[in-house]
């Protein structure tokens, strides 16, 4: 892996309830792999698997993962992705300064795009894309030390990712830059319903 940045990590969130899908999204089949396996394979060219943390629900059964990937369990199932993010950041190796954070249902993600976000972090604590006028906090980059701020928010009963972005020193990245690495912005295509999942599969089959 010639392009792996030693100070860059990844947190993959896969422990959500998948309420609208009705089944565990992480284990859905996608071109001979599961969605989670596909996302990890997309990250591997730029992020060492040993710097990658998968945050799963307490009793969630996962597919076989690449050697080196760490699985941690989120014991706060009702606290949403902010709590899962805190769990993932805390579990990263000490050499990781920034981590890209992605959901397990984004099989077309562009790892070079995510790396580019980190390279533009400068003195910021979070780098978040804006697509169609909306923040994309689950396809973004966060400083590892933000786990302290997240802990304060959770202790106050605030589970909003947007609250974290408002508290942190946040840089936003707009579509013009994103399209340099992902012209169709497919990185931001996930699936919350069976219909959306079928669209992802159809796109993959036709690519």
Write the CATH architecture name: Alpha-Beta Complex
Radius of gyration: 16 Å
Total number of domains? 1
How many helices? 7
**CATH class call:** Alpha Beta
Q: What profile does the largest beta sheet have?
A: 8 strands, mixed
Per the CATH scheme, the topology name is Spore Coat Polysaccharide Biosynthesis Protein SpsA, Chain A
Folded structure, characterized:
The chain is an alpha/beta fold. It has a single domain, classed as Spore Coat Polysaccharide Biosynthesis Protein SpsA, Chain A (Alpha-Beta Complex), CATH 3.90.550. It has helices at 35-43, 80-91, 111-119, 147-155, 161-167, 175-181, 194-206, and strands at 8-13, 29-30, 33-34, 52-57, 70-74, 98-103, 126-131, 134-135, 139-143, 170-173. The strands form 2 sheets. Strands 1, 4, 5, 6, 7, 8, 9 and 10 form an 8-stranded mixed sheet that branches. Strands 2-3 form a two-stranded antiparallel sheet. A hairpin with a 2-residue loop joins strand 2 and strand 3 (33-34). Helix 2 (80-91) packs antiparallel against helix 4 (147-155). The chain is globular. The model has no long low-confidence stretch (mean pLDDT 89).
Short summary:
This protein has 207 residues and is an alpha/beta fold.
Furnish the topology, listing elements before pairings:
Layout: E1 8-13, E2 29-30, E3 33-34, H1 35-43, E4 52-57, E5 70-74, H2 80-91, E6 98-103, H3 111-119, E7 126-131, E8 134-135, E9 139-143, H4 147-155, H5 161-167, E10 170-173, H6 175-181, H7 194-206
Parallel strand pairs: 1-4, 1-6, 4-5, 7-10
Antiparallel strand pairs: 2-3, 6-9, 7-8, 7-9
Helix pairs in contact: 2-4
């Amino acid at each position: 892996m010639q392009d792996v940045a030693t100070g860059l990590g990844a947190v993959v969130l896969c422990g959500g309830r998948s309420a609208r899908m009705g089944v565990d999204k992480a284990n859905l089949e996608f071109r001979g792999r599961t969605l989670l396996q596909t996302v990890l394979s997309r990250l591997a060219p730029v992020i060492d698997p040993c710097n990658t943390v998968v945050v799963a629900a307490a009793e969630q059964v996962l597919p076989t993962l690449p050697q080196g990937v760490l699985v941690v369990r989120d014991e706060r199932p009702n606290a949403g992705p902010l709590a899962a993010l805190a769990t993932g950041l805390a579990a990263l190796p000490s050499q990781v300064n920034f981590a890209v954070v992605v959901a397990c249902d984004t099989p077309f993600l562009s790892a070079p795009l995510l790396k580019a976000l980190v390279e533009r972090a400068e003195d910021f604590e979070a780098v978040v894309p804006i697509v169609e006028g909306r923040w994309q906090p689950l396809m973004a980059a966060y400083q590892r030390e933000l786990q302290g701020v997240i802990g304060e928010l959770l202790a106050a009963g605030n589970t909003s990712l947007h609250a974290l972005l408002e508290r942190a020193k946040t840089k936003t990245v707009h579509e013009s830059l994103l399209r340099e690495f992902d012209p169709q912005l497919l990185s931001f295509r996930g699936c919350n319903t069976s219909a959306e999942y079928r669209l992802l599969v159809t796109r993959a089959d036709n690519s």
